[in-house]
Design goal:
Tumour Suppressor Smad4; 15 strands; kinase; 31% helix; 289 residues; phospholipid biosynthesis; metal-binding; globular; 2 domains; 15-stranded mixed β-sheet; alpha+beta; transferase; nucleotide-binding; Rossmann fold
């Protein structure tokens, strides 16, 4: 099944869709579904798995990819990504070409060769699966603001949301429990990564590997607004982990808590308020391309 979000990134033309369909139809039997909203996309993804589809290919951004992950996790249906959204962080984490036509060609080659692989997922107790990064604190507020904004498009939207949220920057109590121990601190943000990036290519968990059975945790402690601004440029290179206010951990199971009221976001989508328990689910998702 090919599931398409035609509004993804505001740039998905009929000609591009035609090229994508043509590349896939040349190598496999194909059924195409146009998603008119998130509910319809989620229902179509679940139907593809229930019907025993070998592959669910999705055209769009991290939002539709997140919905597809919920359906395909721990099933025999493999997920193929054809990125056409704003962030495309899961595609980036899997090494998928970010041009949708090039990605479709890559998926078609993999389908013809019968190539599939497995990756880990993150699982939140009572809130679902995630494939990229779960975050809470400053960065989840940025995520919420960016989701509400309609301008500008692309990475500039996230950057503007960061600037606006800096006005209210403050730390809150955070408790992080892993199999290795407990960390308690006044924190500005926490990010739990199955893959490295969120926010359209920001490697907040730069060493995260979706095949190692572990989740990477990045903690930013209490910092002044000036210090936080000095950290921001290094986020683009992953060098923020060298700052003395930043702590990194690696674990199979993590519990985030503390008196903070933070709402967690995962794959750019709202999840649940802390406290929240998260675990790595090794080889939980089959992918193509």
């Amino acid at each position: 099944m090919l599931l398409i979000n035609p509004a993804a990134g505001g740039r998905l033309s009929a000609s591009v869709v035609g090229e994508i369909v043509g590349h896939l139809r040349a190598v496999c039997d194909l059924r195409t579904v146009i998603a008119t909203d998130a509910g319809g996309a989620a229902a179509a993804a679940k139907r593809a798995v229930a019907d025993g589809a070998d592959v669910l290919a999705v055209v769009g951004g991290d939002g539709i990819a997140h919905l597809a992950v919920q359906a395909c996790a721990e099933s025999d249906t493999a997920l193929a990504l054809i990125p056409a959204g704003t962030g495309n962080d899961l595609a980036r984490g899997l090494g998928v070409p970010r041009d949708p036509t090039a990605a479709a060609r890559s998926v078609a080659r993999a389908l013809k060769a019968g190539e599939k692989r497995s990756i880990d997922l993150g699982k939140t107790a009572g809130a679902g699966w995630f494939a990229t990064v779960l975050c809470a604190g400053f960065d989840s507020r940025v995520n919420a603001r960016a989701n509400r904004m309609r301008w500008p498009r692309g990475q500039r939207r996230y950057d503007l949301a960061v600037v606006r949220e800096l006005i209210g920057l403050h730390s809150m109590p955070l408790r992080v429990e892993t199999e290795s121990g407990v960390t308690e601190l006044a924190a500005t943000l926490v990010a739990v990564g199955n893959t490295a990036c969120y926010g359209g290519g920001i490697p907040v968990c730069p060493d995260a590997d979706p095949t190692d059975g572990l989740l990477d945790v990045t903690l930013v402690g209490e910092v002044s607004r000036r210090d936080f601004v000095s950290i921001l440029p290094t986020l683009r290179t992953g060098r923020h982990v060298d700052h003395p206010a930043v702590t990194t951990l690696r674990a199979r199971r993590i519990r985030l808590g503390g008196d903070n009221g933070w709402l967690a976001y995962a794959d750019g989508e709202p999840q649940a308020r802390l406290p929240l328990t998260i675990r790595s689910a090794p080889d939980a998702l089959k992918v193509v391309g």
